[in-house]
Amino acid sequence: MMGMDAVSHAVLGVGIGHAFFRRRLGPESVTTLAWASILPEIDALPLLAGSPIAILFRRSFGHSAILLPVLCLALASFFKSRYPEKSRWEFFGLSLLGAGVHVLLDLLNPFGVQLLWPLSGWRPQLGVLYALDPILLLLVSAPFLLAL
């Protein structure tokens, strides 16, 4: 499957948490963003059934703009129970941010996401993932090339 894997999404969530929220909101913001960044992958669970039809659920309900806020509220409620001194809405905002960045990045590849599931099976996609890869490779390797 093309696109970012769950570990990459989680690492990005940790990075966003450390860069923008840890100081102001505390270390639990990093944990929340890490989990929220992989939350949309919940729609990969049907693949565990081993049925070929399960592939139809990939990037569906977990990536849906309709259902994702409900999943984020559930995640926020979980973190509120773990950290009662913090605001549920703070956790909800962090969850929406992490999950939203995940869906946005998955929109970059040709497989797309079912953004309006269950109302529509339409899979919008930007299809620029491979167009960006050489540019990112060049940017990452630029210091090494300059050193040569």
Overview of the structural elements:
- The chain has 148 residues and is mostly helical.
- Helices cover 57% and strands 0% of the residues.
- It contains five helices and no strands.
- It is flat.
List keywords for this structure.
single chain; about 150 residues; mainly alpha; about 55% helix; about 0% strand
Question: How are the secondary structure elements laid out?
Answer:
Layout: H1 6-25, H2 28-38, H3 68-82, H4 88-106, H5 129-147
Form type:
flat
Number of strands: 0
Poorly predicted ranges? none
- Total of DSSP H or I helical runs spanning 4+ residues: 5
Helices and strands, in order, run as: HHHHH
Overall structural class, as computed from helix and strand content, comes to: mainly alpha
What is the terminal separation in angstroms?
Answer: 35 Å
Helix content: 55-70%
Cα-based radius of gyration, to the nearest Å: 17 Å
Largest sheet: none
Q: pLDDT average, as an integer?
A: 87
Characterize this entry briefly.
The chain is mainly α and 148 residues long. The chain has 5 helices and no strands.
